[in-house]
């Protein structure tokens, strides 16, 4: 029994270490492939599309009701996970104000960030690619 607990502790510790290693790398292709493999059992777009179509066709209500139910379940699971991990459920910043972090970006900081970009990173939520960022006239 003690060996089982120790093995579970090591597995948990290794998982946390692996997740900590991924922090700050969400824009890389490798991290997204790992996350996709963990989240999705379907390995390609066609299989995912078929799974979604089966879900829609087998659902008794309308598509709007299905979306509402999924949104409710996802929101509830986020809240449950956040409270079970003792994280605040609010997404607003909870810490003390930091004037240095609230300053606008300096041109030198932006130059340094652009220099660190690699070509295998994926665009963020604003869909700005590395090519677009590097072609900004006032950042050359």
UniProtKB/TrEMBL annotation:
Disordered: annotated span: 121-140
Composition-biased stretches (Basic residues): 128-140
Organism of derivation: Rhipicephalus sanguineus
Protein's UniProt name: Uncharacterized protein
Superkingdom of source: Eukaryota
């Amino acid at each position: 029994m003690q060996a089982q607990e120790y093995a579970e502790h090591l597995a948990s510790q290794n998982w946390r270490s692996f997740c900590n290693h991924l922090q700050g790398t969400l824009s890389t292709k490798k991290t997204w492939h790992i996350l996709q493999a963990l989240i999705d059992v379907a390995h390609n777009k066609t299989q995912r599309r078929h799974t979604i179509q089966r879900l829609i066709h087998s659902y008794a209500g309308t598509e709007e009701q299905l979306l509402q139910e999924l949104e409710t379940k996802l929101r509830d699971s986020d809240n449950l996970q956040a409270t079970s991990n003792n994280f605040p459920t609010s997404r607003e910043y909870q810490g003390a104000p930091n004037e240095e972090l609230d300053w606008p970006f300096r041109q030198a900081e932006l130059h340094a960030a652009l220099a660190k970009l690699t070509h295998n990173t994926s665009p963020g939520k604003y869909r700005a690619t590395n090519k677009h960022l590097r072609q900004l006239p006032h950042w050359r």
